[in-house]
């Protein structure tokens, strides 16, 4: 099935964001694991795997539309050096990714590609759930203090 080039370009923008996300969250997971924070490691690792599955769905959709998935382009990673900074980097990344997804969804609706829109909406739901999780972590740090929060992550 061949569809508008603008849809393929739009899906590739989202794919770039997902590929970047995989790397950022995977590295943060491994940093947390190295520090012994198993709960943070598990959450970030599962996020990177989810992003990999989302990237796979985007690749399949682009190929179905007879486009070429761009796996060579990555955005800039934001890697923190301590837990609050890592959470901040991930939060900002997710907020930016949400904007990319919202714009992509609007483009798909405008061009009446509702299958791609539905795929992007599912991804957006997952990203918003993760944004909520990060904001909860910030709240817990504020309420508990960093030391107690980190103890709870062991």
Automatic annotation (TrEMBL):
Keywords: Heme, Iron, Iron storage, Metal-binding. Its cofactor is heme b. It comes from the Bacteria. Coiled coil: none annotated. Pfam families: Ferritin. Transmembrane segments: none annotated. Belongs to the bacterioferritin family. Iron-storage protein, whose ferroxidase center binds Fe(2+), oxidizes it using dioxygen to Fe(3+), and participates in the subsequent Fe(3+) oxide mineral core formation within the central cavity of the BFR protein shell. This is Bacterioferritin. The gene is bfr.
């Amino acid at each position: 099935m061949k569809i508008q080039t603008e849809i393929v370009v739009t899906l590739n923008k989202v794919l770039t964001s997902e590929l970047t996300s995989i790397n950022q969250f995977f590295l943060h997971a491994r940093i947390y694991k190295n520090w012994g924070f198993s709960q943070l490691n598990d959450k970030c690792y599962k996020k990177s795997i989810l992003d990999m599955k989302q990237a796979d769905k985007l690749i399949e959709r682009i190929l179905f539309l007879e486009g070429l998935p761009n796996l060579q382009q990555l955005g800039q990673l934001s890697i923190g050096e301590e837990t609050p900074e890592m959470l901040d980097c991930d939060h900002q990344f997710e907020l930016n990714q949400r904007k990319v997804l919202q714009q992509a969804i609007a483009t798909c609706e405008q061009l009446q590609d509702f299958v791609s829109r539905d795929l992007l909406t599912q991804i957006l739901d997952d990203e918003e759930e993760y944004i909520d999780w990060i904001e909860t972590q910030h709240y817990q740090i504020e309420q508990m203090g960093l030391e107690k929060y980190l103890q709870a992550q062991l």
